[in-house]
Amino acid sequence: MAEISDLNSATALLGWDQQTYMPPGGVIARGNQIGTLSSLAHSKFVSQDVGVLLEDLKPYAESLDPDSDDFCLIEVTSRDYDKQKKVPSDFVAEFSRVTVVAHSAWEEARKNDDFSHFQPHLEKIVEMRRQYADFFAPYEHVYDPLLDDFEPGMKTAEVQEIFSELRPKQVELIKAIGEKPEVDDSFLHQSFEDQKQWDFGEQAITKYGYDWDRGRQDKATHPFTTNFGVGDVRITTRVDPNFLNTALFGTLHEAGHAIYEQGVSPDLERTPLGGGASLAIHESQSRMYENLLGRAYDFWVYFYPKLQEIFSTQLGNVDLDTFYKGINKVAPSLIRVEADEATYNLHIMLRLELEIALMEGKLMVADLPAAWNERMDDYLGVVPSNDAEGVLQDVHWSSGVLGYFPTYSLGNLVSNQLWEKINLDIPSLSSQIQGGDFSELLAWLHENVHRHGSKFKPQELVTRIVGSRIAPEPYLKYLNEKFGSIYQL
Ligand SMILES: [Zn+2]
């Protein structure tokens, strides 16, 4: 397992370089290198030897405390092994060929606003995702095996139930906001020096507790976090010289992911447990640092005077209240990655519903753009004038990834469930944040979330901490209180 983990870390390092410093000419060689290392890691993992070792360990596991590292290691490794064994390696190779071609077809389709160019590739991908699901038959729902790859143990029915409770209430909130006067955020769209934006972001995440001895920040077109062990967790960001939010909230978000990885117990290093529990749990950490802290009034009580000093010409005459409302402006928009807190989940629900309909065969790929636009109108009241700003905007489907989107919304929900508990456990949190002190919060997250790595399934981890499964109520309460006060609803 340690050798496989090393191979995966080396692959991740090559991927980090590809997205930060590699010259364009390196792309083919890099593809080969990553391909070789990944298939080496895969074949080492699904080998007969591993199966025999796992079988031999079963009686030992039965003698262990289910919370112990060893028990969880055997449990999680066996689960991954059983899953990966079910997928023939020629299918894996074929799928990877299909998605490489589909990805470049998607890039071109998006550039030329021509969905029909991407359509046959997506049809192939959907067909192969159904075949993939069938390797795990019998299942309750054809979407379950896809979801399970990102949220171990999560079922489609449960996500649908959560979302069907969430959707009408969020639509209602957005309608109410839409009837109120627009919030002014024009001061965020000015010229802000790159280096000063960069420095402020680093200052903020240093306060958060991001450890620079075990990390660094670089520029990338699509920001991400990656790690090669608990001692090397890197983040990336992009800077827009004419919009303050891009680098600022991007950096705060990625720092949340990185602080999580930096907090995984070193005892779990070089094992399958040495990383975040799931995408939703990961996103709960990034959203917490981006939104529950970074878009909160308390945070800016401490940081706003500092930001004003750095950008005195741009923000000198903008008071804290105006700034706070500006960074929390709600406006239904076409693009998911630019969506505000109140509208974001609706972008996700639309994608989930379409993915499920595609997998069930109830929606044909050819009808996808129309279905997309119809739901945009229903949920957000805006309709894209072209597919590039609509159905073609996200990279996920072109890479063969279905089942990923719901984890973004689940992360939002989990972040608020944790936040309620944190505020009960740390009654003075609000004043600590106003004083720029995030240490007690970090210690809490470390103790309850970070150190466990992926020992526990996401639902199990959430239940251990807050006493119930992933649920929408705390998130809805948060949205209603926050935006009720900003928009005087
Ligand atoms: Zn994220």
Structure characterization notes:
By secondary structure, this protein is mainly α. It has two domains: 2-142, no CATH class; 143-489, Neurolysin, domain 3 (Orthogonal Bundle), CATH 1.10.1370.30. The chain is built from 21 helices and three strands. Strands 1-3-2 form a three-stranded mixed sheet, sandwiched between helices. The chain starts with a helix and ends with a helix. The model has no long low-confidence stretch (mean pLDDT 96). The structure holds zinc ion (ZN). Residues 253, 257, 283, 286 line the site of zinc ion (ZN).
Strand order of the largest sheet: 1-3-2
What string, H for helix and E for strand, traces the elements in order?
Answer: HHHHHHHHHEEEHHHHHHHHHHHH
Q: What is the overall silhouette?
A: globular
Going by helix content, strand content and strand pairing, the class is: mainly alpha
Class of the largest domain, according to the CATH hierarchy? Mainly Alpha
Work out the strand percent.
Answer: under 5%
Mean pLDDT: 96
Features:
single chain; 2 domains; binds zinc ion; three-stranded mixed sheet; 3 strands; 21 helices; mainly alpha; 489 residues; Neurolysin, domain 3; 62% helix
Give the topology.
Elements: H1 2-20, H2 27-45, H3 48-62, H4 69-85, H5 89-111, H6 115-134, H7 144-148, H8 156-178, H9 194-208, E1 217-219, E2 225-227, E3 233-237, H10 245-262, H11 279-293, H12 297-310, H13 312-315, H14 320-327, H15 344-360, H16 368-380, H17 406-425, H18 429-434, H19 439-448, H20 458-466, H21 473-486
Parallel strand pairs: 1-3
Antiparallel strand pairs: 2-3
Bound molecules: zinc ion (ZN).
Zinc ion (ZN) binds next to helix 10 and helix 11.
